[in-house]
Amino acid sequence: MKNSIKTVLSVFAFILAFFVVFIGASAYFCLLYRHKGTKASYRWSASDEFDISKIATVQKTGDTFTILNLADVQPCDLEDLKKLGVIHDEITYLIETVKPDLITLTGDQTWSNENLISLKCLIGWLESYKIPYAPVFGNHDYGNDGDSAVAGLDYCCDLYERAKYCLFDRGPNNIGTLGNYVVNVMEGDKVYTTLYMIDSGYAEYISDEQIEWMKWNAEGIRKFNGGEYVQAKCFMHLPIPEFNRAYYEYRLSGGRNFDNGVYVTFSLYGSEQNGFFDAAKAINVKDIVCGHQHGNNFTLDYQGVRLTFALKTGELNSYYEDDEVYLNGATTLTLSGGDTTVKSVFVDRERFHIN
Ligand SMILES: [Fe+2]
Question: How do the residues of the chain divide into helix, strand and coil, expressed in percent and rounded to 5?
């Protein structure tokens, strides 16, 4: 009898020890261990031969091509895990409502150093929709200290590059930060629209090398298509200073803070001026879409380029919430012919919000 009790206690102790070790190891690798990932090896030079086959493509098959942009989803593994369910529901609702051909994400997909669980969840959801998606990094994606997160910069690149439907490419390692890449929307065998996915950088500036790299791509694509520069769009996280200038022009012309679904609570914070806007204009960029601010969703024309603050997606951060408007949802860009229509898609506060 004593032996059988001993045996039961031993088995129980073994199972308990197994679960303690398993849970401890899981917590360590998900919340503490720094996953470093693979170092980028590709170095770009303006003298490199352009090869369009290295650029990711999405085919435009109908009369229109719809892009759904998700911005600043940013849960934190330690503080916001309870939000993941409602964020998943919101993204599913947006995708089922919009039925996009392509999903773009303008950065801050996660927030804080504890980012691994949230990022893996997000990638898992996006893979399940079987729609191509193209993310850029924000200033929080690989940790509040730059590259100190559980999923560091290189490891985030690994996760995105391994995902089947993700078009992300970490790009060259010598033009500033990582995550600069190009997506061509094709119509038949011609490039219909080029999307420049730009890393606005943890350092909050766009480098001269990034600009030269973008121009090099534009020239290569122009030659491939024959004729003029292909109409293009830029997606990045931090706004460039022209967003601020567009805002003041809007207000000086009589625009109000909340007009026709356009909400503006502008504060000047963004990447530094370095000629990016003029370079983009010169290669036929017609749209620049940024995230980051949560409190804006304006889309304003400035010198022939439409500047759009993407609407924040997924469980609002409280610091911009007010009783007047629930600034949450996504942004759509519907391409038809040579035109693009930009709209905010708002979601219901009660359905997609945790207090
Ligand atoms: Fe941000």
Answer: 30, 20, 45
Whether 80 maps to a domain, the answer reads yes
Q: What is the pLDDT of residues 240-296, one digit of tens each?
A: 888 888 888 888 888 776 665 566 655 555 555 678 999 999 999 999 999 988 878
Amino acid residing at 132: P
Return the pLDDT at 252. Answer: 84
Query: CA-to-CA distance for 225 and 45, rounded, in angstroms?
Result: 22
CA 85 / ligand 1 centre spacing (Å): 22
Residue 313, domain member (yes or no): yes
In-domain check, residue 229:
yes
Ligand 1 center from residue 188 Cα (angstroms) = 36
Please state, in angstroms and rounded to a whole number, the distance separating the CA atoms of residues 255 and 249. Answer: 9
- Domain of residue 194, CATH code: 3.60.21.10
Number of domains in the chain: 1
What is the CA(313)–ligand 1 centre distance, in A? 13
Distance from the alpha carbon of residue 292 to the mean position of ligand 1, in angstroms: 4
Q: How far is the CA of 142 from the centre of ligand 1 (A)?
A: 11
**C-alpha of residue 229 to centroid of ligand 1, in Å:** 31
Q: Give the model's pLDDT for residue 80.
A: 86
Is it the case that residue 2 has pLDDT exceeding 80? Answer: no
Is residue 355 one of the residues assigned to a domain?
A: no
Q: What angle do CA 247, 249, 254 make, to 5 degrees?
A: 100
Q: Which domain holds residue 200?
A: 34-346
Cα(240) to centroid of ligand 1, in Å? 13
Ligand 1 centroid to residue 139 C-alpha, Å = 5
